[in-house]
Amino acid sequence: MLRQRRQSLPRPIADIRLDGGRLCLDFVNTIHDRYGLEIEDYLRKPQRFLEWCVHAGALHPDDSVRAPRAAHQRAALMREVESLRDHLHALFAARVDDLRAPADAVRGLDRWVHLAWAGQSLGADGHLHWRKDVRDARLPLKRIALDALDLLGCTPAWHLRRCANTSSCGWLFLDTSKNQRRRWCAMETCGTADKIQRYRHGSRERRARRAPWQAT
Prior knowledge:
Layout: E1 4-5, H1 23-28, E2 31-32, E3 38-41, H2 46-56, H3 71-96, H4 103-118, E4 120-122, E5 128-130, H5 139-154, E6 160-162, E7 172-174, H6 187-215
Parallel strand pairs: 1-3
Antiparallel strand pairs: 2-3, 4-5, 6-7
């Protein structure tokens, strides 16, 4: 399927929904309408990526992370963002579909996990702290990788779900509902759209059934 990236004005970072239930899932969900003919990438530029990281909690107020200035460094950062996002989506989708995880996705996450571990040290308080010399624009990717590792290692497979709107949405989420029957990334978006579609379909069927009688 040939898909295109939407070229319209980007939506404000503050308006981007965080429906995944985990940082790593929200990161994967920064592709809007993943299964649609036209997708919207929320993180098209380094500054938007960092702003989203603050919005989602992958960056903290005291991190003092800045986007790279050099064009080649900015391009390299965005390649890493897209690569990790694709690898995480492949890993989570495999878990949802009960399939073997792609080897390249496993290696991709493993690389970032090791980078994250190497960027931390044990402080006098007995807690791990990020070293200041690694507080570059890749810091949020390391935090996202550690969150993904925790999710894959500690979360039962049936808690990880894909939005029932598989015609376009494709968002992933952690189902923490009591009855474990959550179907939508959000009821306000895909759930409402499904209700409208079913209502319109039912209306067409009702009109079709009445048509023969109206014609006589």
